[in-house]
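Notes from the 1:1 (GR / supervisor)

We went over the backlog. Supervisor wanted to see one worked example end to end before approving the batch request, so GR pasted a single chain during the call. The sequence is below; no edits were made to it. Supervisor asked that the structure be written out right there so they could see what the output format looks like.
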Amino acid sequence: MALLTPMDQTSASQLGKCFGLEVREVRAMVAGSVNSNFELTTASGDRYFARLYEEQDSSGALNEARLLRALTTFGVPTAAPLPPLAGEAAIPVHAGKPVAIYPWVGGTDLCLLGVTPRHCERLGRALAQVHSASSRLKEVAEGRFDVAGLRQRLAAARSAAAPVAADARRIEELLSQTVAARDAELPVGLIHGDLFRDNVLWEADELVALLDFESACRGVFLYDLMVCVLAWCYVDHFELQRVRALVAGYEAIRPLSSRERAAAVVEGSMACLRFATTRITDFEMRTPPGETPKRDYRRFLKRLTDLQAGALDSVFGASTRKGDS
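Structure output shown during the call:
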């Protein structure tokens, strides 16, 4: 995805001063799909990561900063942003958009084919740590990607060219069915909401940090786990060794109830429909004619088909299939 908002050396230096940093070099980073990201280098040679929020306002950026500072004190492997010299609420802005600066965290993300069951086990443990921290948080914000918001996006997608418009109508129908099938009694609390491979850093097999809590919100824990199953354990089909390792790692910290296991396909379906929708509006509809979208929403529709056909029955139980009694 192209950088949405550029930043020159002068602007980077001014922002650095807000955090007590003498920035000598700024480099735009390709990483990320929504925000504009930059690598900053100071006069002393230290590196920092700067995030310019393209969609969140200053209150959203402040909420994320407070959440990350709390999670780090609870032992969750993540990174908290630097506090501005003028106080945590004095969020600096560039081009009218809030900016956060983080210490540089070493490590790399993984390609899909490089993911192993050991990685998945470590990921499951870290995700369970996030969920388990919910009871220690004073409050957890509501999410930006609620059902009403997804329907608004799908309404816009219905005006797109075929076959996107037809797929949007299909997704809208499936969304209504899935929402009606959800169990309202599942455990809820803080969820990451977007824990894809580019949001986790590794050194060999060891997890270094969970990144990008911009979508973190109050939600269903099982939904968050199924997002990881879909993102980390599916190549051309579900890799069951990965799925089992992910669930085992998660349950080492926070065991799933039988009620949660019975809802796995419905919550997984909800995740498929959420990401199919946002990939349509954020990638398919924004990609210039003749170019290929960076992320293909159809891959989540394929996941949905396999999920509802029973591909994960051996992990969660055959009764999880939609429509089973």
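Supervisor's comment: The chain has two domains: 9-103, 112-320.
Batch request approved.
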